[in-house]
Specification:
single chain, about 25% strand, binds zinc ion, Ribosomal Protein L22, Chain A, globular
Length: about 240
Amino acid sequence: MTTALFPPAPVSTWLVPLDDTADGVVASLGLARPEGAPASWLDADERARAARLHDATDRHRWLVSHVALRLLLGAALEVHPSAVSVVREACPRCGGPHGRPALGPSAGRPLRFSLSRSGGHALIALRRGLDVGVDLETATAGTPSPAAPATDGLARWVRTEALLKSTGEGLTRDPDAVALRPTAPGVWSEHVEGDDAAGPELVGPAPTVADLALPSPLVAAVAGPGLDRARVRVHLPATAAA
Ligand SMILES: [Zn+2]
């Protein structure tokens, strides 16, 4: 197994309450407060995107989620949040500059990240060296209970979304065409027709999806090549259960 020679990179995830203030998020992440107003930590593109959101609650939540992302990336890279360069990867379908967000080439370290928002929460994942994708959804009345993840449609959806975000395919690939099969409790791999007969893997470890245990009604999964569920850390805010 290649994973024995090259242990899969651990993944850290943070659940961020988005109805908090930016300063509240700094405190709940346990970080020192960077200088300047939180809005000044974002880049021009992020500020423009936020300004296009007309609903005040949406705008606040969007801003806080990106402030949190920059706080975590800045802490991991040991730079001010405003010095983090976030770019768009090439689109896997057309090559255009609208693929998933990634760190710019000046970051100096191969750090991957993924951000998902649902209602008043964001889920952010960071991983060094290897791709990562997260998806967060909120179960509402009418959707199946997250207490039955093996058959729950919402849980299946977040696993697929996390997988497609980790590969950078996102919504360029039909989620209904992705078949996941359990390989261990809470762990899933994509079932590819004929892969049992495949030869040695020459392209690196296959993507793995792991369910994340978050307070109800949140449902989430994290994915990445060679991901080890035992090495996924989940950081919950003190108020998550409220
Ligand atoms: Zn495209």
